[in-house]
Design goal:
This protein is mostly helical. The protein has 24 helices and two strands. It has a two-stranded parallel ribbon with strand order 1-2. It is globular, with a radius of gyration of 28 Å.
Length: 555
């Protein structure tokens, strides 16, 4: 009997997918995680408080915080939306005295931080200010009991100040929307007998509603973010509630719970704006459309249009600049104050470093996502823009707690190894402020980089790679030279926003560390408008540079 050989089949080799660590993917994920860290921290603190004071907040202060916040949002949104939309309609559709100058002058209030406008308005209208002093001299009134004057530090005054500072967001978007429309639609409406009012309500407003809604949403989000105006006018909002609960009672969990309410409001605004136009469609009727031709407004109607467009410009720009400049020039020695010079250096150093790091991180993230094509980084790319919608106070709270934990852990480890206490490295320096600025304004850098890279022909980087360039070399030698204009614009815009940022800086700055914004707030809170004036003028001058750049790019 022949021997039978048993054929043993070989065990199949089990292959597992190899996890290839792509440095671009890892870097993109790390940047996205850094941007999302504050929001994750806020939610963790809110759901794991050391002492749950939520029932106490609900029964005491939270309804007042919420009510004031909603009233400010509604009032500011309505007022800014009205003036922004109507001024845009007038300067695009009509010719009247000064229209060409007003078309750009209406952008200037963007250069004035709202808190500076609040200080100027109070100084101008208070009992010892020029308005009431002139009224008493004119009518012979002895004191305030002889006449009635509306209260200056009130919720209504806060709405006026915020609207005067923020309406250019609506104006800019509405003007762009009107310019993109064909003049044919308006000509047809006029031929069918539509007058000026019907033309606006039935044609102009429906066509520009998406742009107006987006502008009003931005205005309302900035209103929620505001701290300087409401704190100066003693209006208790959700943002001031974060400061009160955290700094006065030391309860980070309660402050985080209020921060979650703010985030819910902001996300609700974004969702409501998108939901309101989900079924709307707007199309161009022809490939070669005629631009809107301005109709002449003669006589009284023309001067009325000039006066209407001049009003928000005067309240939002001329008044703050005039009041602050008068105080700044009254005592020239304030310009060489050591505290001012130190605040200027801190602002330039921290804002400049934050701007460079933010733009570099934005370039790295966008390029890494485009290069790898992996699903997770691509999904996280739009999520990283949420920091711009989150108020500065929320980001400050979300950053300080984890950074303090890292500081304490590092200090304990170093002390155990060397016996020397290094102190607080992150929260004891300006590093926390830089990180907050990066998270807050990362959307500007990311959006600019994404739009600029999208305009580069794919054949150029492909040719560079075919010629032996590495991924980093392609970014350095191909992309950066082609998009340097957009990169420079993003650097400037991020720097300007860093200079004006107040809530996050107040929460995260080390002891006795001032920027121009915090110096203005600190001196004005002590009713020292004269000492605050030079720093305020510097902040406004930086804002003017950004507005000039914005006007140039929107010609």
């Amino acid at each position: 009997m022949a021997d039978q050989k048993t054929q043993v089949s070989p065990v199949p080799h089990l292959s597992f997918p190899r996890l290839r660590l792509d440095p671009w993917s890892v870097g993109a994920l790390a940047i996205a995680a850094l941007v999302l860290l504050p929001l994750i921290s806020v939610f963790w603190l809110a759901f794991h408080p050391s002492e749950n004071i939520w029932p106490h907040l609900l029964s005491t202060t939270l309804p007042r915080y919420m009510g004031n916040t909603l009233i400010l949002m509604a009032g500011t949104g309505a007022l800014a939306g009205t003036f922004g939309a109507l001024t845009a309609w007038l300067v695009v559709m009509y010719r009247f005295p000064g229209v060409k100058a007003l078309e750009w002058l209406l952008l200037l209030p963007l250069a004035i931080p709202a808190y500076v406008g609040a200080y100027a308005l109070v100084d101008f209208l208070e009992y010892a200010g020029p308005v009431q002093t002139g009224l008493r001299a004119m009518f012979g009134w002895a004191d305030s009991r002889a006449y009635w004057f509306p209260p200056i530090r009130s919720r209504g005054a806060a709405v006026i100040v915020l609207a005067a500072s923020l309406y250019p967001y609506v104006y800019l978007l509405a003007r762009a929307g009107l310019r993109e429309q064909s003049g044919c639609a308006y000509e047809v409406a006029r031929a069918l007998g539509a007058g000026p009012v019907a033309l606006f309500w039935r044609v102009g407003l429906p066509l520009t509603r998406p742009a107006i809604a987006a502008g009003v949403a931005i205005v309302m989000m900035e209103t929620v973010n505001d701290f300087g105006v409401v704190e100066y006018f003693a209006v208790q909002t959700l943002t001031t509630g974060i400061f009160s609960v955290w700094l006065e009672t030391g309860n980070a969990g309660g402050a985080a719970q209020i921060a979650c309410v703010i985030l819910a409001l902001v996300l609700g605004l974004v969702a409501l704006e998108k939901l309101s136009r989900r079924n709307s469609r707007f199309y161009r009727l022809s490939r070669q459309q005629r631009r809107v031709e301005r109709m002449p407004l003669a006589g009284g109607r023309g001067w009325a249009a000039t006066a209407f467009c001049t009003l928000p410009f005067v309240v939002g720009f001329v008044l703050p600049v005039a009041v602050i400049t008068a105080h700044a020039l009254s005592k020239p020695d304030r310009w060489v104050d050591p505290g001012l010079l130190k605040a200027l250096w801190h602002t330039v150093a921290v804002g400049g470093l934050a701007a460079v790091l933010t733009v570099v991180a934005g370039l790295f993230l966008v390029y890494g996502v485009r290069l790898t094509g992996r699903a997770l980084p691509r999904l996280l790319l739009p999520v990283t823009t949420i920091g711009y919608a989150a108020p500065g106070a929320v980001l400050g709270l979300g950053l300080l707690i984890p950074l303090a934990g890292v500081d304490n852990a590092v200090a304990d480890a170093w002390t155990a190894l060397t016996g020397n206490d290094p102190g607080l490295i992150l929260t004891g320096s300006a590093a926390a402020i830089v990180l907050a600025y990066m998270v807050r304004f990362f959307a500007i850098a990311q959006g600019a980089a994404d739009a600029a890279m999208g305009r580069v022909s794919p054949s150029l980087p492909m040719a560079a790679r075919a010629l032996g360039r590495t991924a980093g070399g392609t970014l350095r030698d191909v992309y950066v030279p082609l998009i340097r204009g957009s990169v420079g614009t993003a650097l400037l815009l991020v720097f300007v926003d860093c200079v004006k940022e107040l809530p996050a800086t107040l929460l995260l700055r080390p002891f006795n560390y001032n920027t121009l914004a915090t110096r203005v707030h600190e001196q004005a809170s002590l009713e020292r408008i004269g000492e605050a004036a030079p720093a305020a003028l510097m902040v406004m001058a930086v804002g003017m540079v950004a507005v000039a750049l914005l006007a140039r790019t929107n010609r």
